[in-house]
Amino acid sequence: MGADERPLREPDKLGDLDDRDERPMREPDKLGDLDDRDERPLREPDKLGDLDDRDERPIRDLDAEMVRYYAARAGEYDDWYLRRGRYSHGPVNDGVWRADLEATAAWLDRLPCRGQIVELAAGTGWWSAALAAKGSLSLYDAAPEPLEHARARLAQAGRHAEFAVRDAWTEPDRRVDGLFTGFWLSHVGRDRLEEFFALVARWLAPGGLFAFVDSRQDPESGASDHRPPEADVQVRRLADGSSFQVRKVYYEPDELLAALARTGFVEARVETTSRFFVLGSARRGRA
Ligand SMILES: C[S@@+](CC[C@H](N)C(=O)[O-])C[C@H]1O[C@@H](n2cnc3c(N)ncnc32)[C@H](O)[C@@H]1O
Asked: Global pTM?
């Protein structure tokens, strides 16, 4: 096995528990506002290897398109973490990527977070088993397809969580002790960042912890046939060549810190890994 193929250790480092969650996940027909996600035909797949990533369609509804994109990408999403196929950028870059993922997993392990924990836009649950080791995890995403992968991942890790299809913008139905988002803030538009932080604050009990990991801009972060976002919108391709438009905003640590302060968070810390990720945590103020 070459260096590039070394299996990456997933972030859950703790021992085996067998409290698997056998409950059925909410059915896709409960998607509510997202029901129109399949109405628009995708752009026809272009030939793979054709690097023309222009997408001339007018942007209609980026929020709905992002859900369609991640639903369609669910089976290949982890290729990004694992640097497989179009996501591999050679042994040096991929080695740094792995080291940054390890650093992020170690950071997550150290987070002082327990009790009731919510993970929004949880996707395939890359970070979820580690969160479920810390407390009682509720794991939400707007698309059921990635959640099925998360369900399998948690079962494999012997971890329990509650799963539901739920839009990240849905108003909280309770107060929790911790809230985590992975690679979600970069899908929140600049005009809505503080609105989202205010929503997180409403999720949290006073003193509750908000933590997030997200992307730093780097040419070797995404797929080799992706170009950088223009005006915070990026064209993404799947392995079959189909293309989608997603919002992708690379927030600087200072911008995040300022927005957290303006929305009443305290003890905010935002740091970066050596190259690829930004890691942040803050507590909801007690006022
Ligand atoms: C970049 S992925 C992140 C997945 C996971 N958190 C991780 O760290 O790997 C973004 C996720 O956001 C989900 N998503 C997109 N729009 C959403 C919305 N409005 N509400 C909740 N989830 C949404 C997608 O389905 C996808 O799983």
From this structure: 0.84
